[in-house]
Specification:
Layout (H helix, E strand, L loop, with lengths): L2 H18 L8 E6 L7 H13 L9 E6 L7 H11 L3 E5 L1 H10 L5 E5 L3 H4 L12 E5 L2 H15 L5 E6 L4 H18 L2 E6 L3 H13 L4 E4 L3 H5 L1 H11 L3 E3 L2 H5 L4 E5 L1 H16 L10 E2 L3 E6 H6 L6 H4 L4 E3 L1
Parallel strand pairs: 1-2, 1-3, 3-4, 4-5, 5-11, 6-7, 6-8, 8-9, 9-10, 12-13
Antiparallel strand pairs: 10-12
Helix pairs in contact: 2-12, 3-4, 6-7, 8-10
Length: 326
């Protein structure tokens, strides 16, 4: 082999490893922001991953999910979102009104996939349900629309109850305001008196039950808030201790020992969030994705808790339950 040809061969060989060892492109990053704790939202997070899988994405393989649990502490949201915007994450998933509004204020370019119980048009995050426009879309799981029905179910379960305590998280202003508004609108027709109780921490929840006991409330209505879901063991313990019937929006609290719940199947809502997030990663624009509305609702009763409270479940109530936990 001539010297010049030998040099060409060696030069060509030196280039081969450059192609063979090229670094793979980093996985897209989804920032998942939710109130409550990781433990309290384990089922929802699993539903979100299932939706991602249906869209063709597997966490840890071709997508990275960063979980940010607020646990009722909203003060750090601006700094968190500023960091996400600086790093230009691929998608921000926000199941909850507070993180959704904060994300919308923080960025007009990074796609946002939300899950909110209130009308997202009134929240100011989309132009319309059919044509969201902008960088946000998601699922409306209709909290306000079913608040009155939850109050009616509590009244039907405990027909002798007159004084109803309503537990709210003042840190989640949108949910607290809409819950109180709908409850106060529905209560007079049922002959109910409403007592407002507020709490944002474990200590304040304990204090709230002291107030409920002192005011001699007959029953408890708990707002649909991720904070209360994450404190479900505490709520179940306190309602059992004080022997007070309570209704919740989330079935997980009933599984933990709460009396009854009525609301959206949130696991399915989280799954839809995962599907929408995956679609965006594939290139679909949020502006072209209509806001979905939840269609799966469930009424769950814990018969063991009812018995412990000395309650006889009326036939008309038990007949419409989707599930009775024995």
């Amino acid at each position: 082999m001539r010297r010049r040809e030998f040099i060409k061969v060696i030069a060509g060989s030196a280039a081969w490893p450059l192609t063979a060892t090229a670094q793979p492109q980093p996985s897209p990053v989804i920032a998942f922001i939710r109130d409550g704790s990781a433990e309290g939202n384990a089922r929802g997070a699993a539903g979100f991953r299932r939706g991602l899988n249906e869209a063709g994405f597997i966490e840890g393989q071709n997508v990275t999910v960063e979980y940010h649990w607020l646990e009722g502490k909203y003060d750090g949201l601006p700094a968190l979102l500023a960091d996400l915007v600086r790093r230009n994450v691929s998608v921000i998933a926000t199941p909850g009104s507070v993180p959704t509004r904060a994300a919308k204020e923080a960025t007009a370019s990074i796609p946002i996939v939300f899950g909110v119980g209130e009308d997202p048009v009134e929240l100011g995050v989309v132009a319309s349900l059919a044509k969201p426009g902008g960088n946000a879309t998601g699922i409306n799981f209709l909290v306000g629309e079913v608040t009155a029905k939850r109050l009616r179910l509590l009244h039907d379960m405990v027909p002798g109850a007159v004084r109803i305590a309503v537990l709210l998280n003042p840190g989640n202003v949108v949910v607290a305001d809409s819950t109180l508004r709908e409850v106060q609108k529905a209560a007079p027709a049922m002959g109910l008196q409403i007592q407002t109780i507020k709490a944002t921490t474990t200590h304040e929840i304990n204090a709230a039950f002291d107030a409920i006991r002192n005011e001699r409330a007959d029953a408890l209505f708990v707002a649909a808030d991720g904070l209360f879901t994450s404190r479900r063991a505490q709520l179940a313990t306190l309602t059992a201790r004080d022997r007070i019937p309570a209704i919740y929006a989330i079935r997980e609290i009933v599984e933990t020992g709460g009396l009854m719940s009525y609301g959206t199947n949130l696991t399915d809502m989280f799954r839809q969030l995962g599907i929408y997030s995956g679609s965006i990663l594939k290139g679909t624009k949020p502006a072209d994705m209509p806001v979905l509305q939840s269609t799966k609702f469930e009424f769950v009763i814990n018969a063991t808790t009812a018995k412990a409270l000395g309650l006889t479940i009326p036939p008309g109530v038990i007949s419409i339950a989707d599930e009775v936990i024995e």
